[in-house]
Design a protein that fits this description.
The protein is α/β, with parallel strands linked by helices. It folds into two domains: 69 residues, no CATH class; 192 residues, Rossmann fold (3-Layer(aba) Sandwich). Helix content is 45%, strand content 15%. The chain has an eight-stranded mixed beta sheet with strand order 1-2-4-3-5-6-7-8, sandwiched between helices. Helix 1 runs antiparallel to helix 2, helix 2 crosses helix 8 and helix 5 crosses helix 6.
Length: 284
């Protein structure tokens, strides 16, 4: 069934029963529908990783395990999308660590995506395995997941978000906008998400949105991002506070930004800056 057909069917159902349309939208919303495959230019890096299963997901580690940097992919993506970052980190003597999220890449989980709380547990398990992260670099949907995990205790010295979203409600707002579904269906979709993923939790849409942080953060976003509205970068900067700084790119969109050499170098330089300064101080 094509997106055009799905949109038309949901609109008809929404006109009759927003509640039913909301339930159907939820079933679509939580399914990635496709798994990202390893691309040709990622194969060498992907094959060079040490692969383990930690907390039920497939994890990848490069390097000798010292000075770990966590890389977090987004929706319908996988760890290998960070190939350019991994190469640069290895050149500088760091140990990239990543994973395929449930229902993504080579991880299990069937067809149902995991919640932000599930991701938090995965990050905690990785932190228990590798220790404090020199930095975390997160793309797209990985951004709010990673920032929440750090806020809740996963230790990281520096953070970078690339094409990230800040408002948790943006997940349903943008989804409904893409399908042409109105506010009534959006409300029903949010209720279904609350019931299935966060039973008993209050203020879900505020709790998981970006809040003020105390770890240095670099926000990178593109002016032509067609997946995550560039306005989300401004929301992220405002909510996170004085520890955040911004780098806007031009003409790269949502995906090409991940292979742009300037973006890769700037993100890696930012997350490794504190560690390099510490080592220089120790050598003085």
């Amino acid at each position: 069934m094509t997106l055009t057909t799905i949109r038309a069917v949901l609109r008809v159902i929404a006109a009759i029963s927003p509640k039913l349309a909301g339930r159907l939208a939820f079933e679509l919303w939580r399914r990635p529908l496709m798994r990202g495959k390893v691309r040709e230019n990622e194969r060498a890096i992907h094959a060079a990783a040490t692969v383990e299963v930690i907390d039920g997901v497939v994890t990848y580690q490069w390097g000798d395990g010292t000075r770990p940097v966590l890389l977090v992919h987004g929706w319908r993506s996988r760890a290998s999308r960070f190939a350019a970052f991994i190469e640069r980190l290895l050149e500088l003597g760091y140990s990239p660590v990543s994973f395929d999220a449930p229902a993504h890449g080579d991880s299990g989980g069937g067809r149902i995506a995991a919640s932000i709380l599930d991701h938090q547990r995965i990050y905690q398990a990785l932190a228990a395995r590798y220790g404090t992260f020199e930095g975390v670099i997160a793309h797209s949907l990985g951004a709010p997941f990673a920032l929440y995990a750090v806020r809740e205790g996963v230790a990281a010295k520096r953070l970078v978000t690339i094409s990230g979203l800040a408002d948790f409600g943006y997940l349903t707002d943008s989804f409904c906008a893409e399908l042409g579904l109105g506010p009534a269906v959006n409300r029903e979709l949010r209720k279904a998400i609350e019931r299935h993923y966060f039973p008993g939790l209050a203020d879900v849409w505020t709790r998981f949105s970006i809040r003020e942080g105390d770890v240095d953060l670099l926000v990178i976003h593109n002016d032509e991002d067609d997946v995550v509205d560039p306005a989300q970068a401004e929301v992220l900067l405002t909510q996170y506070g004085t520890k955040a700084q911004f780098r806007q790119t031009k003409g790269l969109g949502h995906r090409r930004i991940m292979i742009d050499p300037d973006v890769v170098n700037e993100a890696v330089a930012f997350v490794t800056a504190s560690d390099i300064a510490e080592r220089l101080d120790l050598g003085a």
